[in-house]
């Protein structure tokens, strides 16, 4: 029996949380894409010492000032102990004890005898200890996705390594004797479009997948399906399959799950497109459970299964919160799908907070997906008119990616 769409996302997220593994410590260079498993605390005041924001002079007393030295970034500043003296100072350098002010080089002059004159600006040109953070302060909480900015923050604080949730290794199995892996479609066969794109979506959802972890097309027999899934579980925590999620004459996924002793977490979702999706728990070769996500064979339906089941599962597995749709205004009417949730491809205009449905949105089509930023969510038994506020679920993005296309463009 189909599960309601929002309930399916919650169940997938809970499945991820229930299979989470112990955290591990990794070097900063390996932390990108992981999730903080403990709060990131300031190991020292930030800055740790008074720091110059400018190139110029650190001065004491009234001017003009007699230069008595220089302090560069990375050096230890000697105190300024005499009035009417100064030291040349570089951006990022420690401000010496005894300095009353900093004067920018462009605001200063030197006379023939070498004395420095100038006027400090009203706002001090140095950063004081603890201005950004104080020692022991929580900078980022548990569950924060680690991106390059987080890595940089950790390095600034003095971390060489951080405690993060383990990487989730994913494998992809493409089912379908009708699929071509090269060349143009024809003579009853179609080009596989999921094998090339699903690994990239999995990376955007937070999984680790290597080029050799994508296998297919797998022969349309029960034995071939069972063997391929069993092999994938040797190295993967999450096995994604494409196609075979119905119960047609050559759909062997359900019998393969039964043969492997699996149990369903979710078996079909009340959403259109994409309803014949599934999430199953399988016993792994080492006794630890693996998860199998069955994605429909139609391309748009497969991506809807990814954002419905795989993205929430991986969020839960990483200890992150369940991604929640934002609300935007639709610029055009979007019809409902009776008792099912309708996910309608749309292009987002983040500046206006609007989304415009795109064309070419059949479940087997990719043109609409290529021109969209995500999905407008139309609840069961409802219709949406232009100007209505609707939930909007964005397509998964890598850190730093943002919707770039104007709304409505195809």
Automatic annotation (TrEMBL):
InterPro entries the record matches: MoaB/Mog-like_dom_sf (IPR036425), MoaB/Mog_dom (IPR001453), MoeA-like (IPR038987), MoeA_C_domain_IV (IPR005111), MoeA_C_domain_IV_sf (IPR036688), MoeA_linker/N (IPR005110), MoeA_linker/N_sf (IPR036135)
GO molecular function: metal ion binding; molybdopterin molybdotransferase activity
SUPFAM superfamilies: MoeA C-terminal domain-like (SSF63867), MoeA N-terminal region -like (SSF63882), Molybdenum cofactor biosynthesis proteins (SSF53218)
Entry cofactors: Mg(2+)
Gene Ontology annotations for the cellular component aspect, listed alphabetically: cytosol
EC code(s) of this entry: 2.10.1.1
Spans traversing the lipid bilayer: none
Reactions it catalyzes: adenylyl-molybdopterin + molybdate = Mo-molybdopterin + AMP + H(+)
UniProt entry keywords in alphabetical sequence: Magnesium, Metal-binding, Molybdenum, Molybdenum cofactor biosynthesis, Transferase
Pathway membership, UniProt: Cofactor biosynthesis; molybdopterin biosynthesis
Annotated MoaB/Mog domain residues: 171-316
Pfam families assigned: MoCF_biosynth (PF00994), MoeA_C (PF03454), MoeA_N (PF03453)
Single biological process term from Gene Ontology: Mo-molybdopterin cofactor biosynthetic process
Gene3D superfamilies: MoaB/Mog-like domain (3.40.980.10), MoeA, C-terminal, domain IV (2.40.340.10), Molybdopterin biosynthesis moea protein, domain 2 (3.90.105.10), Molybdopterin biosynthesis moea protein, domain 3 (2.170.190.11)
First-tier enzyme category under EC: transferase
Record family assignment: Belongs to the MoeA family.
Function comment: Catalyzes the insertion of molybdate into adenylated molybdopterin with the concomitant release of AMP.
Official protein name in the record: Molybdopterin molybdenumtransferase
Organism (species): Mangrovihabitans endophyticus
Lineage, top ranks: Bacteria, Bacillati, Actinomycetota, Actinomycetes, Micromonosporales
């Amino acid at each position: 029996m189909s599960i309601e769409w929002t309930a399916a996302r919650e169940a997938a997220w809970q499945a991820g949380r229930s299979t989470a593994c112990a955290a591990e410590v990794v070097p900063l260079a390996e932390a990108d894409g992981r999730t903080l498993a403990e709060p990131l605390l300031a190991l020292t005041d930030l800055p740790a010492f008074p720091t110059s924001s400018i190139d110029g002079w650190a001065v004491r007393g009234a001017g003009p000032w007699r230069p008595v030295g220089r302090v560069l970034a990375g050096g230890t500043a000697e105190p300024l102990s005499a009035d009417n003296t100064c030291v040349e100072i570089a951006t990022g350098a420690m401000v010496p004890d005894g300095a009353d002010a900093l004067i920018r080089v462009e605001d200063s002059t030197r006379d023939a005898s070498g004395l420095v004159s100038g006027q400090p600006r009203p706002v001090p040109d140095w950063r004081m200890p603890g201005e950004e953070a104080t020692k022991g302060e929580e900078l980022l909480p548990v569950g924060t996705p680690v991106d390059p900015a987080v890595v940089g923050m950790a390095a600034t604080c003095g971390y060489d390594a951080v405690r993060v949730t383990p990487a989730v290794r994913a494998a992809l199995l493409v089912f379908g004797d009708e699929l071509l892996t090269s060349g143009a479609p024809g003579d009853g066969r179609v080009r596989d479009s999921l094998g090339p794109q699903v690994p990239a979506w999995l990376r955007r959802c937070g999984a680790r997948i290597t080029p050799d972890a994508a296998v297919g097309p797998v022969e349309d027999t029960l034995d071939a399906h069972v063997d391929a899934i069993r092999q994938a579980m040797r190295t993967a925590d999450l096995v994604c399959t494409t196609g075979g999620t119905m119960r047609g004459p050559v759909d062997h996924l359900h019998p393969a799950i039964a043969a492997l002793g699996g149990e369903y977490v979710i078996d079909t979702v009340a959403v259109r497109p994409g309803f014949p999706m599934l999430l199953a728990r399988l016993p792994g070769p080492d006794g630890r459970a693996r998860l199998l996500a069955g994605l429909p064979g139609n391309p748009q339906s497969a991506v809807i299964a990814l954002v419905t089941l795989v993205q929430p599962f991986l969020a839960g597995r990483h200890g992150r919160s369940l991604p929640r749709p934002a609300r935007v205004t639709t610029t055009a009417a979007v019809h409902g799908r009776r008792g099912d949730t309708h996910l309608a491809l749309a292009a987002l205009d983040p500046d206006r907070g609007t989304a415009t449905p795109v064309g070419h949105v059949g479940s087997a089509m990719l043109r609409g997906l290529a021109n969209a930023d995500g999905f407008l969510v139309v609840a069961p038994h409802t219709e949406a008119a232009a100007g209505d506020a609707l939930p909007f679920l964005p397509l998964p993005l890598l850190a730093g990616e943002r919707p770039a296309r104007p709304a409505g463009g195809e």
